[in-house]
Amino acid sequence: MSDGKAPRVFISYAQDSPEHMAQVRGFATLLRRRIGLDVALDQWADHRRLDWSAWATELLTNADFVLVVASPAYRRRADGQAPPDEGRGSQYEAAILRDNLTRNLRAETQRVLPVVLPGRSVEDIPAFLMAYSTTRFEIPEISVRGVAGLLAAITGQGPYPMPERGEWRGGAADDPLSPGTPWVAHSTGVHRAGVLLDGVRYDNSIVFRPREPGGTGFVELALDASYGRFTAVAGVPDDAAEPFQVGRFRVLLDGRPRAETTATLGKPVPVELDVTGTLRLRLEMHRPPALAGSHPAELAWGDPLLV
User: Where does the SEFIR domain start and stop, copy by copy (predicted)?
Assistant: First the structure.
């Protein structure tokens, strides 16, 4: 709800038995006390004389969500298979819900939520709520965890929100290391640039050119388990001031080394790695201390790609 108020929820059910009524009351109490929803239930309003039809009509019309609790009696009454004097209240409520769905199917499908409590069956959902072609909410246990799926439908906040869409690149592989995509962390001397590795141009590369000798260049990215394969070319740029340097390259997935290689000028090395399920990727490059010489490192990951 955008205005900060708790969603107003009405529970429509049939009084099948004292046990079923107690289960519905426990369910409603959880939603109101533990979740904080503004829940209305007839059992909490029977301490005074009411026009029950007017009471139900107002809630069925104005509640943000209506939870229909599936049970054999509710289905029988909602499907028109019960005699007129059986469960008049649930027959009346189901008739209004059917009318609302006919009036605005799309909106009411999102507002009227069929609920299957523990011990009940999907077959207990009334036919007009289309148990098999629309979403239903099966509650495995009456607990905060048990109502998580239902709460997602009410709040519009599911456990797996859709990520923001990146820039369309005409069907080319997704490249989170390209310009405009932030790094989680990186060392000094590391930047994005185009490089030539053995005569081949790599326009979206990660280049390490520190001002002083020594140290390791690195960059880290959050993958959020969204990719399956990493590819790049590790090498010494063709314009390196010191042509005889040796570069060491390493890939870490979630803090664990998964690939290491050595490259020299004119001999870049392709790197390909399975990154399925990886949360964080770290790319490292440095000159071995014994071979560092007096010049700073000049190393590059050529066009690192994630797909």
Answer: 6-148
d(CA 207, CA 217): 9
Instruction: Answer whether residue 175 is part of any domain.
Output: no
- Tell me, yes or no, if the pTM score tops 0.85: no
Q: Which domain CATH number covers 92?
A: 3.40.50.10140
Mean pLDDT of 123-141: 96
Residue 206 has pLDDT above 50, yes or no: yes
In DSSP terms, 149 is beta-bridged to none
pLDDT value of position 160: 81
DSSP states along the chain:
-TTSPPPEEEEE-----HHHHHHHHHHHHIIIIII--EEE-GGGSTTS---HHHHHHHHHHH-SEEEEE--HHHHHHHTT-S-TTSSHHHHHHHHHHHHHHHH-HHHHHHHEEEEE-TT--GGGS-GGG-TTTS--EE-SSSSTTTTHHHHHHHHT--SSPPPPP----TTPPP-TTSTTPPPSEE-TTEEEEEEEETTEEEEEEEEE--SSS---EEEEEE-TT--SEEEEEEEB-TT-SSTT-EEEEEEEETTEEEEEEEEEBTB-EEEEEE-TT-SEEEEEEE--GGG-TTSPP-EEEEEEEE-
Residue 178 lies in a domain: no
**177 lies in some domain:** no
Its domain, for residue 202, covers 185-306
